[in-house]
Amino acid sequence: MAPTIRFAGPDDAAALAAMLAALRAHEDKAGPSPEAADVAGWLGSDPPAFEALLAELDAGPRGYLAFYRAFSLFKPGPVLLVENVWVDPEARGRGLGRALLAAAAREAVRRGWSRLELNVAHANAEADAAYAALGFSDPGEQVRRIEDAALARLAERSPRR
To answer: Theoretical Cys-Cys bridge with 115: which of 79, 129, 132, 152, CB 3.0 to 4.6 Å?
Structure first.
């Protein structure tokens, strides 16, 4: 049976929040996961803070792909930036991840956005191989991130320090 892919709305917040918590636990992310009320508010804002595609199989959401619009001056134009992809471990191997990525690609093309981009952890060789098999390239770049206390420290620096 093929998965059904559809956009998530505020009514899907509880299911999406549960999958976000599962992904955070899987990746050993520190800190609390978003609550369903937060997710509902973000999805229900105008424009939404992010968008999500749900993969449904066996009468329920079993995976998701969260994305938002970014912009590239190099391409140039809008970019569909995938924040994360998650498939319930019990549903893996059934094409849900591929279906989510294909649906995101169709949405990017429909919107006239010429790029879909995502990050993959160096330690996640299985996902990296799956993305390569779908045609994703490695641009030879590495993501650098600053957040939380380090972000606050940088913000407090004077222009000369």
So the answer is: 79
Side-chain-side CA neighbours of 116 within 13 Å: the count stands at 21
- pLDDT > 90? residue 140: no
CATH number of the domain to which 22 belongs: 3.40.630.30
In a domain, 149, yes or no: yes
CB 87 within 8 A of CB 121: no
* pLDDT for 21: 95
- Residue 130 and residue 5: Cα distance in Å, rounded? 19
Distance between CA atoms of 80 and 63, rounded to whole angstroms? 18
Non-local (6+) Cβ contacts of 117 within 8 A are: 70, 79, 80, 81, 82
Strand partners, 132: none
The pTM (predicted TM-score) of the whole model is 0.90
Which pLDDT score, from 0 to 100, does residue 158 have? 75
Q: What is the mean pLDDT of residues 25-36?
A: 90
